[in-house]
Amino acid sequence: MSDSIKVTVWNEYLHEKKDEEVARVYPKGIHNAIAEYLNTQPGIQAKTATLDMPEHGLTDDVLNDTDVLMWWGHIAHDQVSDEVVDKVYSRIMDGMGLIVLHSAHFSKIFKKLMGSTCNLKWREAGEKERLWVVEPGHPIAEGLPEYIEIPHTEMYGERFDIPQPDTLVFISWFAGGEVFRSGCCYNRGNGKIFYFRPGHETFPIYYQPEVQKVLSNAVRWAAPADGPKPNFGNVKPLESI
Amino acid sequence: MSDSIKVTVWNEYLHEKKDEEVARVYPKGIHNAIAEYLNTQPGIQAKTATLDMPEHGLTDDVLNDTDVLMWWGHIAHDQVSDEVVDKVYSRIMDGMGLIVLHSAHFSKIFKKLMGSTCNLKWREAGEKERLWVVEPGHPIAEGLPEYIEIPHTEMYGERFDIPQPDTLVFISWFAGGEVFRSGCCYNRGNGKIFYFRPGHETFPIYYQPEVQKVLSNAVRWAAPADGPKPNFGNVKPLESI
Amino acid sequence: MSDSIKVTVWNEYLHEKKDEEVARVYPKGIHNAIAEYLNTQPGIQAKTATLDMPEHGLTDDVLNDTDVLMWWGHIAHDQVSDEVVDKVYSRIMDGMGLIVLHSAHFSKIFKKLMGSTCNLKWREAGEKERLWVVEPGHPIAEGLPEYIEIPHTEMYGERFDIPQPDTLVFISWFAGGEVFRSGCCYNRGNGKIFYFRPGHETFPIYYQPEVQKVLSNAVRWAAPADGPKPNFGNVKPLESI
Amino acid sequence: MSDSIKVTVWNEYLHEKKDEEVARVYPKGIHNAIAEYLNTQPGIQAKTATLDMPEHGLTDDVLNDTDVLMWWGHIAHDQVSDEVVDKVYSRIMDGMGLIVLHSAHFSKIFKKLMGSTCNLKWREAGEKERLWVVEPGHPIAEGLPEYIEIPHTEMYGERFDIPQPDTLVFISWFAGGEVFRSGCCYNRGNGKIFYFRPGHETFPIYYQPEVQKVLSNAVRWAAPADGPKPNFGNVKPLESI
């Protein structure tokens, strides 16, 4: 048990309370739908946290006990306090993994880590998406077919204004004519970050088995590696000069 | 003349006014030493701007007329206003190049673009540095020898907490036993960014011909490419769905 | 004139002589269609070479006088002699640029440079392709719109078994449901390599202005940078040990 | 046991039989020294193979039962048959990991995978090397200190003529004034490749605990990910066109 990867699934948790259609799809919220799936996977222990909790549920105790943070946000990015964002950022620099879902491309923490606008094209027409695996040897592609089809989804299209990923795992095709870099891996500080495009509040995408498989693969990939914690600042020479 | 690359060399310009030793090396400031060199190069037109000017000399008019911004800062990063940083950032997203010199690794604009702490090891012992070209086919290596020796310099050592460069051009060796990724290229937004380690306020490094050659090569590399300006936001499908 | 980039456009030149339909589209061969366009561009001088010439037209004199080699092949990759491939390879290691077109993904020289199978999916159905610019600040995207539409083309689909590009400039969308990494930049040795997907023997793709623009941009990007020629082998220490 | 990673440590095994000094350091050969260490590690099962065996010990049965192949060669690269190299290459394309040690930078298999000359500078003066971890969040850095010191070693210096690594984990400093990219990760086909510089036939480097730790970390990182096996060739459209 002590070797499990500890995941905190964070959700702004607003849509599900305000909108009946969303509540029908995710009655306990997107965070619980994902956490329940993750808790079926060996070696993963998932909890949840939401915007309305004190410190958005991301207290020092919670963050220090989190190996991988998963982030869903959409309409309330601005309500996340800068102080919490700074703490999350510091934990990532120290090695915590971060998995950024769908509309969280515009979250404060993702924009801060990317250093670019993270802007994109979008359209809500319920069209078809097909995610192609372009790096089949990557751990996040484990157990997947050559492509994942999502029958109805919101479209995100290029130009996606992000730094070129350290590794690009998925590229999406959309019926309406666009493409998108949908699975993007980054090292930042001692932490690993994975952006994953699929997901929506009114389509049941996080119940789709291939999508769930990507989420658990990503958790394992993003878990801290326990590498050296760098020393910074003024240092003495290691050789006589 | 209209095809020249327009460079603005920015300097916090404090050391040179406070410290006699610095003033002896750079009597008109580091910014003017660099700009004077750049103005000897065909196809480059350089001006300067400093912290003490209104809006730090980086007004909308100046930024809109700048193809490549070169940045030196050391002891006054915090005095640069966030508003100016945001304007510089927006211009880079739109395509302006940025060349970040030495201690400007800790400038607000570089940290904002990198999304990591940009921390490092350092030592002021006047030791020897040797920069090895590791990507000799890159335009920034044009006309250079296999390595550049800097007889006396401040040391910067790894771990340098930056995203892995899109292209790594130089790696430094230091007499005291450290190494450093000293020439780092990044695409961010429509802009190009080059971090270059050498330079110091009391060593005459920016007068060294190979170092100057790197600076003019970097200006040419970082000049805007005039690619498509992305459209973002809600879009209609290009195909019938 | 002496500062012009010297391009050699190589073509196996078989389809055009065997097949009336191809000959109607490219009466003087694909190589001449491309070379004629390139010769309208300032600072570029293009010649041609073909498989049936002695040494396939790629003698030492020709290669030593070539800054950028463009390569078209389709049905006769095996007829290219290993000796010529080795010479081309050596010139690339020394700095010559290489632009690999469409079906030349399976050329001996490209497979040798990539170190992977370069295999892919394909279909000849004359369907629509849309190339999206995903790195708009890259010099190869200069002057382009956000996407290029090719009304009728052969499809190439992922997984494209190549090393992750150093920079990925284009991603293609196909009507039949596939995506493809269509504009891929690599540094190898002192040389630069650009793989560009579009092109076909029976569709007039190399007459399309945006496609031509990519070709001339790629020539400028791939031109040798005149960096240091590395010394290899046994060396004396630069410091006393 | 069935979940163990199966490693084959390959050695040309010539130095150890010809040279008393080498035999004193590695009495059972470098391959056995490494395999014995690996077999002390949980979840790893290592066997060995050598040049003088039929098919160099790399029969179909052996290769099909190998998850990660480790390769040491120095003076007999040319004696490795092209047929065996082609089989190893095919297995890597299918997902087998490859760890390339020290002088195996010039092995046929590494050069074939890199597509460049893999040339470098070298010197046998028994000088000091210090490997700095530059990507501390990478799995291969797990459990390591900030740097590894090797008191006496052969020097390898830049320019190392390789493709820019997908991830660069280590940079070496040498007493004689050179630097080197000493830990280089690549994806090729479905396989993962790690080049690791340290090691020599007369210095006891593979008995050094930090070096051994890198080897077992690399085995875990390079183990096959069981991603999708791509389908190549002519395909039907997935959408009506």
From TrEMBL, chains A, B, C, D:
ThuA-like domain sequence ranges: 6-222
Pfam families in the record: ThuA (PF06283)
InterPro entries, per the entry: Class_I_gatase-like (IPR029062), ThuA-like (IPR029010), Trehalose_catabolism_ThuA_prok (IPR009381)
Protein name as it appears in the record: Trehalose utilization protein
